[in-house]
Design a protein that fits this description.
Blueprint lengths: L1 E5 L6 H17 L5 E5 L5 H8 L7 E5 L16 H7 L3 E4 L2 H6 L4 H13 L3 E6 L3 H5 L3 H12 L9 E5 L13 H18 L8 E4 L4 H8 L6 E4 L6 H10 L2
The structure holds 1,3-dihydroxyacetonephosphate.
1,3-dihydroxyacetonephosphate binds next to strand 8.
């Protein structure tokens, strides 16, 4: 299980330090074998890695929220995957719906970013999810299946990536998908993945979208749910720790 916190464009340096200290204290005492990952804004990665250094054994990893498809070059404002690796990241998120919507990222672009991340030795968490219109039109499986296949580069090994299913209508809205809907979609994503490569039967498929301490257990208990990608509730130590505890 992976319990991941996407901080998005939030937090200050001081708040980041105290959150990571609380999370690492929890990891040092946690009984289960779930992995905790935090995705801070790029300028806080150094601070977070410094606060978490020496704690790798306790299961706290750090990731970037995005990377460019190129390894370096004239791309003002962008961040290259090797920079994230050098800063101490083990992971990078690609294809978050906010990147797809705000920056016009297609699945083909997401796949290029994922290739760059793999070249840099990072693991990629590839985000997919349908909009409310697509769900209401009965197209959720088709849309998400295509996003998975088109965003996932050919030839990745099962230890190089995870998938995060985040229905766009459940992000930051307090509207969590029902366990039945999550179960159906995660089973569908599993079938799409193993259709590509039989070894993908062990890929973690995370659910994201209004995950909170009070709904985490029901979601994380589903067969094909391999963790949670948490936004708002990952900014509060108590909430995020409670979600991680629900993972066992
Ligand atoms: P919320 O948990 O705030 O709904 O955000 C989910 C998300 O987008 C995580 O990447």
């Amino acid at each position: 299980m992976i319990i991941a916190g996407n901080w998005k464009m939030n937090m200050t340096r001081d708040a980041a330090r105290s959150l990571v200290t609380a999370l690492s204290d929890d990891r040092a005492n946690a009984a289960g074998d779930s992995q905790m990952v935090v995705f801070p804004p790029a300028v806080l990665i150094d601070t977070v890695c410094a606060a978490a250094s020496g704690l790798a054994a306790s299961g706290l990893a750090v990731g970037g929220q995005d990377c460019h498809a190129m390894d370096s070059g004239a791309h003002t404002g962008d961040i290259a995957a090797p920079m994230l690796a050098e800063a101490g990241c083990q992971w990078v998120l690609v294809g978050h719906s906010e990147r797809r919507a705000d920056h016009g990222e297609s699945s083909a672009m997401v796949a290029d970013k994922a290739r760059a991340a793999i070249r840099a030795g990072l693991k990629v968490m590839i985000c997919v999810g349908e909009t409310l219109d697509e769900r209401e039109a009965g197209r959720a499986n088709e849309v998400v299946g295509a996003q998975v296949l088109d965003s996932l580069p050919e030839g990745l090994t099962a230890d190089q990536f995870a998938i995060a299913y985040e229905p766009v209508w459940a992000i930051g809205t307090g509207k969590v998908a029902s366990p039945d809907d999550v179960d159906d979609m995660h089973n569908h994503i599993r079938a799409v993945l193993t259709g590509r490569d039989a070894s993908y039967d062990r890929i973690d498929i995370l659910y994201g979208g209004s995950v909170k301490p009070d709904n985490a257990e029901a979601l994380l208990g589903l067969d094909n749910v391999g963790g949670a990608l948490v936004g708002g509730a990952s900014l509060k130590a108590d909430d995020f720790i409670a979600i991680a505890r629900a993972a066992g």
